[in-house]
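User: For my dataset I need records formatted as: sequence, then structure tokens, nothing else. Please produce one.
Assistant:
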Amino acid sequence: MKIIEGLKKVKDLVVKAEDLRGKISKYCADLDCESPVYPDQRKQVSEWLQAHSDVLKEILSIRYRIQKTNVNHEVTIELGGKHVTKSITEWIHRRRDLAVLEQTAWKQLSEKDFKEAYKTKLTVNSPEQVIKRRLYFDPLERDTKIELFRNEPSVIDGVLETVNAVTDLME
């Protein structure tokens, strides 16, 4: 089973479990003046409970296999002209929020709208002094990093879509 097949199967099994819970809720009790819907309603409800438990075990098994595969399967993605290798799990976390947080940090580097130079008089008798702005970062590097981290999630998405379609789940 491929990762994408496992993800879809889990989704289908969740729907099946919801359906079983609905049946259990609807048919778990009735009034003694009503006719049971099923010949042996107690047995039927018990079978649904067992089926629900079995479905949950299958969901757990597939989710575990997906997580195990994601942790152990490494993927190389080209970012900013560099090939970076991480596990699928690490890429998922980069995609989910870490790339955005990195971009946010680089966006904090600003030139603070200072005018290029200020002139000031320190005292009445002193000459004017030119005060220059100092930057403690490289603006070109900042702009490059912001663009890199802005694009990273979509690059990861593209690669992981393919990886999910071709990677077998681990047992």
